[in-house]
Design goal:
The complex is a heterodimer of chains A (287) and B (214). With 287 residues, chain A is of the alpha/beta class. Chain A is built from 11 helices and 8 strands. Chain A has an 8-stranded parallel barrel, surrounded by 7 helices. Chain A is globular, with a radius of gyration of 18 Å. Chain B is α/β, with parallel strands linked by helices and 214 residues long. In chain B, the strands form 2 sheets. A 4-stranded parallel β-sheet of chain B has the order 3-2-4-5, sandwiched between helices. Chain B has a 3-stranded antiparallel β-sheet with strand order 1-6-7, with no helix packed on it. The radius of gyration of chain B is 22 Å and the shape is elongated. The chains are: A alpha/beta (287), B alpha/beta (214).
Chain lengths: 287, 214
């Protein structure tokens, strides 16, 4: 069982953070960030060509993080690989010591830099979770026996702010049934709304790590609002717009949310989108 | 219906640059419906070709140019076809290739086929069917997530929809919200929202021979 999975099972407040592989081969600054985060978080998500932007692969960075003794969470999207490549990559990840896998559909390439690419989406998220579970039993999708089988800690995503929320609840149920042990969410800025969501999904015995994104400027809010599934209350927008130092205010908002989450949530997933060096301070101020 | 759009005229002229005499073939079925290959479009194309110093030996709007029998019967023997250096086909790829099967002459498409469409009204078309070979509309209340969800999600929505609109095109409804609302109204007892939908088969046939089957 992965260290991350053990921590999830211990019912302590679990903290994950997210890193983006670079566009290119220079991993120096990314690995420095992993050194900052590794010792203070329970898992580091590494994104899979986020926003369909073509980057260094998640699996390579996960392996580098693993070599440093930290706990990587491989993000795997359904966008770019068919069922052959997805299964093959799951086996490869396991052989490289990567046991935590977060399965997502992936931002569609039409809203990224590669509008002309052929989107794959051969499997959807529920199907890929099911397939990953099946690989664990030593059999692949076509029923062939594996010589050596993997063991994963599987995660999925859910968007508590989407409407109709019932549909997200249904989807979360399917993902949980398919084998997702933990969930990470789109950013939460409205604690009460999130608490309402938790009531709706309380029957699923899974861990949910709500997302927070560091808002660094008023300009950044516009970017965030263009991201799929992101919802920011006016109250937060006003705080950033009126702040003399928006980044500081954004960090403060993050710390405040995490502090509140500590009282009832399973954990938190922190996304700083290029400003990961501020995560230690955000966590410190949330205690 | 196969929805087509006309290629830019410059591209068409460029593809015909080594030929002087052109015969234009239209389509009385789909391409007429979407105004890209009917009588009117064919005449307009003939005029445009003439303006670009081509000689048009004639034109013919075939009932269904995608039918090899029709091409044989109504096109292959026309003297105006034989008099031409090349054919310009104003039909989908199915039409172009039926003509190719029958007539051994240089031939060029003037249209880009884009999708199998449902007509809302003239000029407004939606891709509601991917011709996937494994129809699941019985599970969904008649709304297809394979064609109408850009990610082809089969078990439910992604997390990208905002206020019921798709992350890929905010002008489009998230098809899962439509399926959800419809199922709620009609009180469909099981269906796609409740059960696990297994991965689709993509091993559909690329040719059918019903005679051989019998």
């Amino acid at each position: 069982m992965s260290k991350f999975c053990e921590k999830l099972n211990k019912n302590k407040f679990v903290i994950t953070a997210e890193l983006f592989p670079p566009k290119g081969t220079d991993v120096e600054s990314l690995m420095k960030k992993s050194d900052l985060l590794g010792p203070i978080v329970d898992g580091i998500n590494v994104t899979d060509n986020q926003r369909a932007s073509m980057r260094l692969g998640s699996m390579a960075i996960c392996r580098l993080i693993k070599e440093k003794g930290y706990e990587p969470i491989l993000q795997m999207t359904c966008r770019d690989r068919n069922r052959i490549a997805l299964q093959s990559d799951l086996l490869s990840a396991y052989v490289l010591g990567i046991e935590n896998v977060l399965i997502l559909s992936g931002d569609h390439n039409k809203i990224g830099e590669y509008k002309d690419a052929k989107p794959v989406y051969d499997l959807d998220t529920v199907q890929l979770l099911t397939v990953a579970k099946q690989l664990e039993t030593g059999v692949d999708m076509v029923g062939k026996h594996l010589k050596g089988s993997p063991k994963f800690c599987l995660g999925a995503v859910v968007n508590p702010t989407a409407s109709p929320v019932d549909l997200q609840v249904i989807m979360m149920g399917k993902k949980s049934q398919a084998g997702a042990a933990f969930f990470q969410t789109q950013p939460i800025y409205d604690i009460e709304q999130y608490k309402g969501f938790l009531k709706l999904v309380s029957q699923h015995k899974v861990k949910i790590l709500p997302g927070v994104i560091l808002i660094k400027s008023a300009q950044f809010i516009k970017f965030l609002l263009n991201m799929p599934g992101v919802n920011i209350p006016d109250k937060i927008v006003r705080r950033i717009e009126q702040a003399s130092d928006p980044l500081k205010e954004g960090m403060k908002i993050c710390s405040e949310i995490i502090k509140e989450l500590r009282s009832f949530a399973d954990g938190v997933h922190i996304m700083a989108i290029g400003m990961e060096e501020y995560i230690p301070e955000i966590i410190e101020n949330s205690k | 219906m196969i929805i087509t759009v006309q290629k830019p005229l410059e591209e068409i002229i460029e593809s015909l640059k080594q030929y002087k005499k052109i015969f234009v073939v239209g389509c009385a079925a789909c391409a007429t419906k979407c105004q890209t290959g009917g009588e009117e479009a064919v005449k307009k194309m003939a005029d445009d070709l003439k303006k670009n110093k081509k000689e048009v030996t004639g034109y013919k709007v075939l009932d269904t140019p995608c039918d090899v029998r029709i091409v044989k019967k109504d096109l292959s023997r026309l003297p105006e076809v034989k008099a031409a250096d090349a054919l310009l086909i104003m039909a989908c790829g199915g039409g172009v290739q039926a003509v190719e099967r029958v007539i051994d002459m240089p031939l060029y498409p003037s249209l880009n086929p884009v999708f199998l469409g449902t007509i809302e009204r003239i000029g407004i078309y939606n891709e509601f069917c991917k011709i996937c070979g494994d129809c699941i509309l019985a599970e969904t209340g008649g709304i297809c997530p394979i064609s109408r969800c850009p990610k082809g999600m089969l078990n439910g929505p992604c997390g990208g929809a905002v206020e019921g609109k798709c992350e890929v095109d905010r002008d489009n409804d998230c098809v899962w919200v439509l399926i959800f609302e419809k199922n709620k109204k009609k009180n469909v007892k099981e269906g796609i929202l409740k059960k696990y939908m297994a991965p689709k088969t993509y091993s559909k046939p690329v040719k059918l021979n019903n005679k051989e089957k019998k």
